[in-house]
Amino acid sequence: MIPGNAHFDTTKGHIESRKAHAIDVTTDDAKDTQKEVPFKGNVSLEKLEKVLKENPNNVPFMVLTVTNNTVGGQPVSMKNIKETCTLCHKYNVPVIMDSARFAENAYFIKVREEGYANKSIKEIVREMYADVDAATMSAKKDGIVNMGGFIATNREDWFEGAKLFCIPIEGYVTYGGMSGRDLNALAQGLNENTEFDMLETRIHQVKYLAEKLDEYGIPYQRPAGGHAIFVDADKVLTHVPKEEFPAQTLTCELYLEAGIRGVEVGFMLADRDPETKENRFNGLDLLRLAIPRRVYTDNHMDVIAAALKNVYDRREQITRGVAIEWEAPLMRHFTVKLKRLG
Length: 342
Hints:
CATH architecture of the largest domain: 3-Layer(aba) Sandwich
Structural class: alpha/beta
Number of domains: 2
Strand order of the largest sheet: 3-4-5-6
Number of strands: 11
Largest sheet: 4 strands, mixed
Oligomer: single chain
Order of helices and strands: EHEHEHEHHEEHHHEHHEHEHEE
Helix content: 25-40%
Number of helices: 12
CATH class of the largest domain: Alpha Beta
Distance between the termini: 41 Å
């Protein structure tokens, strides 16, 4: 049993490929996309403790994702990070921090959480990791590099175990399959992206797009996150049944409207239950509009908002969605083949 605050798709895929169960212990605030709560990515300590109590010696670790991508790029408070670590360690369960967007999470702690306004991003980051046992990092996000990532841990047994996989599959332990150039770029990216001005510029652009969507009355996961806007497809395509994947349908409609490529974070991504093989329709059904760093201008955000408004204005005419023609047995959304209905 692997509890986590809404495991991301690949995390869940790896967990289930090892015949384990990913259990969501996110706060219930995340379920209401229109509710304004500063830290919707938080762990529900009550849900987490229930899992820990009911599964003694069967929880090898807990995954704490910052920011919480699956519920709309929502941050986790420092208070919640510390409380989660304390609770897990009480039951001798290690905590692994999924760190793809850790710097954005630190930004929100600085601007939203009492006691951190005068701390630097780097100081906040160090405090975020003070109590965790390990971290995984997809460096293409907050590392601002083209490719790569790393595992960090202060547990020697985990380090030695990871080496066994690293050398035959990725490369030697000092570079793990990454080139020297990419390692240098990652070091520079981590340094730059833990500066407040860099983060504020990026997160302003996300906020700008949110304000445009507010003008048009388009519902999204509120408040706006740090790397993307997550449009609530369930509230937009109200005539498309869940069995026809509303968020995936909205993603396709936006692409057909203006060539804008978003991604579904919802029922298609949720995949099938590994035991019953039934589609999982729990959780949110969102269209993610992720904004690359240092690529688009505010004018681009205007175009995105206008195109989405065009789709939103004709939403009553969209009554059918998509059907699956072929899917892989694991992490299907990366390669799934769909057909349009209606």
